[in-house]
Each structure stands twice: as C-alpha cells, then as structure tokens.
Amino acid sequence: MAVLSTLSNLHLPSWLHITLLPSLSSNFPPSVSENITPLILSTTAAALIAYAFFGPRSKNPTVPGPYELPIVGNFLQAYPYIKNQQFQELTAQLVEKYGNIVMLKLFSRQIVITRDPDVAKRVLNPSSSDPEFTRPDNSKIFVIPYMLFALGTDDLWKRHRKFLQPAFGPSHLRFALDASNEVMDELCRIWEGQISAKPDGKLRTNARDVMTSVTMDIIGKVAFSYDFKSVLHLTSHNAPQHSIDTILKTISNRFAVPPFLWSLFDLADSSSPVKKAREENAALLKDVIRRKREGAAGTIGKDERKFDLLDRLLAENEASGSGGEGKFGDEEILGEVWGFFMAGHETTSHTLTFIILELCRNPHILTKLEDEIETVLGGRDAEVTWDGVHQLKYLEMVIKETQRLHAVVGGIGRESTRDVDVLGHRIEKGTRVNVAIRLLQRDSRYWDEPLVFKPERWENGFVPRAGTYLPFGDGVHNCIGQKMALLETKITIVKLLQKFSFTMLPNQGLSIRTSVTSGLAHGLVVDVELRK
What we know:
Elements: H1 2-8, H2 14-19, H3 30-54, H4 75-83, H5 87-98, E1 101-106, E2 109-114, H6 117-124, E3 133-134, H7 155-164, H8 170-196, E4 203-206, H9 207-224, H10 239-256, H11 272-296, H12 309-320, H13 330-361, H14 363-377, H15 386-389, H16 393-405, E5 412-416, E6 420-422, E7 425-427, E8 432-435, H17 437-440, H18 482-499, E9 500-504, E10 512-514, E11 518-520, E12 525-530
Helix pairs in contact: 8-9, 8-18, 9-13, 10-11, 13-16, 13-18, 14-16
C-alpha cells in the first residue's frame, strides 16, 4: 500500500493512473496477472527514484511522443492495445496528437512512427548502393525461420528472393487463373446446393471464414500442387487457420515485448500455445512436402517451366544433395512453404472480405460492377478467361479502393543503418522506423474524402502521390506475389457476383483486429442468395 500511495502522489500523466494503478493486472495474461502487479509496482517505484537522480536517457531525444517511464518506457500504455490486437488504434491516436513523426519506447526498443509520404519512400525504397534504412533479420520473431518476408536484407534474402521469383512469373499466373476458377466452381456448387435446401432460399455464413478457405485452397494448388480441401469442409473447425491466428498474434506481440519477457507473456517457442500452433502447422506442411516428394519421385528431369514454388525448392535441394545439404536445406524449404502458406492466403482473404463488406454497404457500386461483369464477359454463366478478367477495369478500381481504405498491412518497419535526419529530428543508428501505411492511405491531405469508398477516384489512370498508397509495400522488399494475389481476388469476386447476392446482417460488430495483418475481428456475417 505504501508503494501505491507513493505512486499516486507522483505527477504522472493521466493515462498512467488509469492504466497502471486501478486495473493493471487485467491487462496481462492469466498466467501473469496474479503475480505481475507487485512486481511492476515495486519495479516502477525503484525506477522512479533512479529517474529523479539520473533523468531521461533517450537515443532520439527530440522526437515527440508520450511520457516515458524509466525502464519500461511506454510499454504499460501500449500493452492493452497490443493484447487486444488494437495497435493500429494506438498508432492513429499518437500520430493525431504528435504529428507526422512520433516515438514510442517499449523497454529499450525505440520505434519511430511516420505518416509522411516522402519519408515513407525514403525508408522503404532507399538507395541500393548506400541505403539509410534496411530490413533487419526478424526470423526469431516470426516463430518459424527462413520465411522470405522475415529475412533481413542480406545475401540469404537475396538468394531466396532471386530463386523464388520465377515461381510468380506469367506461366504461373495462368496456373493461378485455372486454380482460382476450379476452387470457386467448387464453392459455387456447394453454395447452390445449400441455398436450394433452405426454405427461405438464404444461406447465412461468415464471409471471412469462407474467403479464408477459398484462398487457402488456391494457394495450396498454385504453390504446392496440393488440395487442402478447405472449401469442402466449410462447416468444420479450421484447425490450420486457428494455429495460424495464434502464430500471427505471437509475432505481433513479439515485436512489442522484449525477448527476456517472452516466457512471462506466453510468447516463447517453449510456451504451450506457441509450441502447439507451431507443431500443428509444421506437421501439416511437412506432410505437404512429403506427398510432393513421393508423388513426383523427385523433380530432376521435370519440365522446369511447370515447376510450382515447392517444386523449385525441392529441385534445388535434390540437385545439390539430399539431407538438407543443397542450397535450400529442409528447414529452409519448410520455412518458405510455411511463409507462403500463411501470407498467400491471409492477406487476400481479408481483402476479399472487405470487398464484400463495401459492396453490401454500397449497392450502387455493386450494380455497376455486376453490369460490367455481364457486359465484358457475356453473361452470368460466362467463363472467366485470362483476357476477360483483365478487361474488367471497374473491378480493378474496386479492388484498389478497398486496398486503400482497408489496408490489410497497416504498417511496415525498417531499421536505420546509421544516424540520419528525419523531418528535422536526429534518428540514431539501429532505430526502428515504422511507416504508417493505413494512416497515409486515409490522410485527407492526399485523398479527397478519404473515409468514403469511391472506386471512381481511380478513373482515367489516376496515380496517387508517391508514398501515399502502399498496399504491397515498396522497394526491393515489395510483395513478391502481388500479381498473383490480384488475379486471385478478381476471379473470386467475379465468380461470386455471377451467381449470388449478399446481404450484410445489421448491427454486427465490425471492429478491426491487428496482428501481422489487419482484418475484421469477428468476420462478416452475410445472407447469401441465388441471384434473381
């Protein structure tokens, strides 16, 4: 009680009294809350005494930001947002209060957040000869190593990127067209049967869950020549997706919580939820790899033009020796398979869900899009061909506007390679700088009526200001599969609108959940009917 009294009498910011003193323990996991309050209070009291003698020690002292406690910095302020997967909301509040550059300190980690488009270009697309910013190696944070988008800007990343790039070339895009049509035909067949069996002709479903199954099946066919059969089992528990959600949340929290506290917050590899999710995913994907090896009886001698992503990885492994001795060892293969399995369906499923949301909200846009599809393709039963899908210009505008308004990747971080000046502030070497993509894409300085869904803003070849539209990132680390993702999105939407109409249930919570990606926390419940 003496510690509480001492803290209550200190002139601390209001958020600290609200967050720390009355309900601190409720912000932590059950395994932590019972013992954490005395620990934090005593640590804070000791730190405040030291603070009175030694004062602040910031690497970037001129960058504005919220009040920092000694040792923990802004961690106590940030953790409730992190825990509830609402970190984008905290970012928005900080930028609104402090401007285009703001610093958040989480223990010893200092994160500079920027909403400036010129800085965004500078951070994400620096000079290749002498870059000011680079992507550090985040392999330990990403739970499973050797994923392309977790590797730092080094020789290992360059080797992976160069080797995998052909798996997303023109011939593979045509394969993605076929796979997307195949999966969507299966979904349409299932839905038509289910709707016909309903007395009122309505099928109530969660669009987010369905789109997750669709994109999981497509990435399986395209990248691994494997059928996960997720669409066939829409009504059953999606175990792979549940474990993916656990790992994504773990990754997001690891960026904020220092490694020495990972065990305390159930974030360590040995922690039960992380270990279980990792083992479940590894078992599934090792089976995918095993089946590919057995079915192909090796890839040497196979037409390389027909290689999918997994074929390429296995061929490189086999050509240089078995047992992980080739350029791509077994752990590297597993890491890349897991990375593309996760990223290849997670981001696209969120985008598809947001498109359905906006079409339900804006019936005039839906009607215009339906008319374009029927006119260009030649009817509701028309085949979705390569040439046809690329003529759907209004569909492209709808997708672009969805990606602008609903950024699935809300921010991207890089690390300064040396001391640099950013917006008049000295940023020390090794500081993480996060580009607030979601905020840039909703900034009224660069977008007319930024919170209004207006596909027409993309008419006549409109090109936004550089650094204000970054759905696939920028620079050398831009999304390797963006063309494939866009093609998959187009075909899925066309197939849905050819056959069905959607009505969004009113008064459902549409809050955003942020981990590595951002999507609707509870999905989107809709009634699906056959188009009249």
